[in-house]
Design a protein that fits this description.
Layout: E1 2-8, E2 12-19, E3 33-38, E4 46-52, E5 55-61, H1 66-78, E6 93-98, E7 109-110, H2 113-121, H3 130-143, E8 149-153, H4 163-166, H5 172-176, H6 186-200, E9 211-217, E10 221-227, E11 230-234, H7 256-265, H8 269-278, H9 281-286, H10 292-300, H11 304-328, E12 333-337, H12 338-343, H13 345-353, H14 364-369, E13 374-375, E14 384-387, H15 392-410
Parallel strand pairs: 1-6, 6-8, 9-12, 12-14
Antiparallel strand pairs: 1-2, 2-3, 3-4, 4-5, 7-8, 9-10, 10-11, 13-14
Helix pairs in contact: 1-3, 10-11, 11-13
C-alpha cells in the first residue's frame, strides 16, 4: 500500500510517500520520497525540494498555485532521478492534515462533500489554516480523482477532554455556538503518548494508570495531560493562542488587556491579532527572535531582555506542568518533543529543576546529549523524563492505513 501525505501550511506544502505492507508499528520507516514546496521566500515563485534514492533536487517554480504545485510533486514521483512509482494509480490513498475538525469530528474521516462542507463551516475557527487545508484537498482531488482521500484532524485527539475542562466559564451560549477548548498539536500528542508508553513498557489501566504530561515545544507550544493514552486536558484552547508562551504568540493573558488597548489606545481587532500571534512571546519580550537558540546565545552574552524572555518561558512552562499534574492527580512521566523539546537541553534542565518536589531527577549527562526516544531521568527518579522524536507524518500515515482497513472490513 502506498500512502501519499499532503500537509498544507500558510506558505508551504510538505509531502511524503510511505509504503505500508503490514500493520504499522512505531518502527518508523523512511519515506520512499518526500517533497516540500515553499512559496514564502520570493513573491510569485516557489522553492521546490524533492528527496528520493539519496538524491536532493531543488528547483524554483514560477507559480504559487496549489494545484500546479501538486501536479509538479506527482511528476517527480514518476520521472527523473526521484522516480519511485510507475503510475499514479499505484497511490492507494492520500492523507491530509486538517488543523480544525470543529465540534463534530473526533476522528479521521474519508473525504466526502459533507466532510468538506464541515471543514469550510468551521473555517472561522481556524481562518489561517482550514481554508488552505481545504484548497489542498480539492487540488489533490482534481489531480487524483479516483484515489480515496482521508483527513486527519489536529483537534481530534483532544475530543476526550471532559466538559469541565473544555467548556469556558462564559455564557453557556458560547458553548452552543461551538466556542470551547479544542486543543491542537493533537497528531503529535497522540504519537508521543503511544511512543512514551512503549519506551517505558506501560499501557495503563484503571488499577495501574499511566499518567503522562507531553510537552510539545516548538515555535508553537502546548502541553497535554494524557491518562492511559487519552487526552484529558491541554493548554491550547479555542485557538492555538491559549496556554504557554510561544515563539511569537503570547499564550494566556488577561483578556481585559485587549479591551483596554481597544478602548484607550484605539487598537483594531486585526492589530490585536497581529500583536498576539506575531509580535509576542519570546520574540516580543526579547526583541530579537522567536528562536530559542538565538535568545539563549544573547542571554549568555548578557542581554537582559533575552534573559527575561527565557525566564518567563521556563516559568510558564513549569506553571502549566503543575496544573497538568493536578489534573492527572500525579504524574508518571513527562515527555519533551518538538524542536525545542527535543533539542534544548537547558530548557529541559531548568524546567525539571523546578519540579524537584515531584522527586524528579534528571541524568544531566544524558540530558546534555539529547538522545531521541530515551528516558533521561536517573534510576531513582520517581517520575520518568523522556525525549520523544515526534513523527507526525507517520502518525497521519498510520491513521490513513487504519481508516482504509476499517472501510474494507465494512465492504
Amino acid at each position: 500500500m502506498k500512502i501519499l501525505l499532503l500537509d498544507a501550511g500558510s506558505s508551504t506544502i510538505k509531502s511524503h510517500l510511505f509504503a505500508i505492507d503490514q500493520t504499522p508499528t512505531d518502527n518508523v520507516p523512511k519515506p520512499l520520497w518526500q517533497a516540500q514546496a515553499d512559496w514564502g521566500k520570493e513573491k510569485g515563485k516557489t522553492e521546490f525540494t524533492v528527496k528520493a534514492h539519496g538524491q536532493r533536487i531543488v528547483d524554483i517554480l514560477p507559480t504559487t498555485v496549489q494545484e500546479e504545485l501538486i501536479k509538479h510533486m506527482l511528476d517527480t514521483l514518476l520521472n527523473g532521478k526521484t522516480k519511485v512509482l510507475d503510475q499514479l494509480s499505484d497511490i492507494t490513498l492520500v492523507g491530509h492534515r486538517v488543523v480544525h475538525g470543529g465540534p463534530n469530528y473526533s476522528r479521521s474521516m474519508l473525504v466526502t462533500p459533507k466532510v468538506k462542507a464541515e471543514i469550510q463551516r468551521v473555517a472561522s475557527f481556524a481562518p489561517l489554516h482550514n481554508p488552505i487545508n481545504l484548497a489542498d484537498i480539492e487540488a489533490a482531488e482534481k489531480v487524483l480523482p479516483h484515489t480515496p482521500q482521508v483527513v486527519v484532524f489536529d483537534t481530534a485527539f483532544h475530543s476526550t477532554v471532559p466538559d469541565e475542562a473544555s467548556i469556558y466559564p462564559g455564557p453557556y451560549n458560547w458553548y452552543e455556538q461551538g466556542i470551547r477548548r479544542y486543543g491542537f498539536h493533537g497528531i503529535s500528542h497522540q504519537y508521543c503518548a503511544r511512543r512514551s508508553a512503549a519506551i517505558l513498557g506501560r499501557t495503563g489501566n484503571r488499577e495501574q494508570p499511566f499518567r503522562l504530561i507531553n510537552c510539545h515545544l516548538g515555535n508553537g507550544c502546548s502541553l497535554a495531560a494524557i491518562l492511559n493514552g487519552q487526552s484529558i486536558d491541554t493548554t491550547m484552547g479555542f485557538t492555538p493562542l491559549e496556554g504557554l508562551m510561544m515563539g511569537s504568540r503570547s499564550g494566556t493573558i488577561d483578556p481585559s488587556i485587549l479591551t483596554y488597548l481597544q478602548r484607550v489606545h484605539g487598537y483594531s481587532a486585526h492589530q490585536l491579532e497581529q500583536i498576539l500571534n506575531k509580535e509576542s512571546g519570546l520574540k516580543g519580550i526579547s526583541g530579537l527572535s522567536n528562536d530559542v537558540r538565538t535568545i539563549e546565545k544573547a542571554a549568555q552574552e548578557g542581554n537582559k531582555r533575552a534573559t527575561l524572555a527565557m525566564a518567563i518561558f521556563i516559568y510558564r512552562l513549569r506553571y502549566f506542568i503543575g496544573a497538568m499534574v493536578s489534573v492527572l492527580n500525579g504524574v508518571d512521566a513527562i515527555a519533551f518533543t518538538g524542536g525545542i523539546g527535543e533539542n534544548a537541553a537547558s530548557v529541559r534542565a531548568q524546567t525539571c529543576a523546578g519540579l524537584s518536589f515531584l522527586h524528579l531527577q534528571l541524568d544531566q549527562t544524558k540530558n546534555a546529549a539529547s538522545p531521541p526516544d530515551q528516558d533521561i531521568a536517573t534510576p531513582d527518579s520517581l517520575v520518568r523524563v523522556l525525549i520523544v522524536h515526534t513523527q507526525e507524518d507517520w502518525e497521519i500515515a498510520r491513521e490513513c492505513w487504519h481508516m482504509l482497513q476499517a472501510q474494507r472490513s465494512i465492504q
